[in-house]
Amino acid sequence: MRLRHKFGFMFSFTLVVNLILTKYFLVEITDNYKMTIEKLVVHNRQLNEKIEEIESIGLQVTVTMYEPVPYQTDSTPNILADGTRIRTQKASEYRFIAVSRNLLKRWGGPLDYGDFVILRNTQSHKDGLYQVRDTMNPRWVNRIDILETPGTPPYRLVGEILIADMEKNT
Fold it and tell me: Phi/psi of residue 101, each to 5°?
């Protein structure tokens, strides 16, 4: 009889201790999750504000050009980074651009393949609507390359891009 009483007491004591510890750790974990979520919400809000600023004010970029030739691209100059196939002799007609990696979503930027951007304030005839289809070498930052037909005279401009609110046509 005494053994049964001791066993019951030990079981009850262990159960109470486990319940107290579980409640303590659940409260602690819940508090940690709440703090983490609050930090993430604040960080997300800051990133969204930064994106809105880029969308409304524009992001200053250096604008250059590239031709679909092997020494400026790779061994398949008629295939762009997103898989689009082009006719190299009509490259200027497409109005496609390559963007530096820091501008692409996969590397933390606001743009994705297929997005339309408005290029403005270049003080040239290159202002207008372009579509993101290619990626530049990793060494470039805040830069876009306009796809041009081979033989186009090289140029270097400064302008800004705005994200155009249009349906993607991929």
Answer: -60, -35
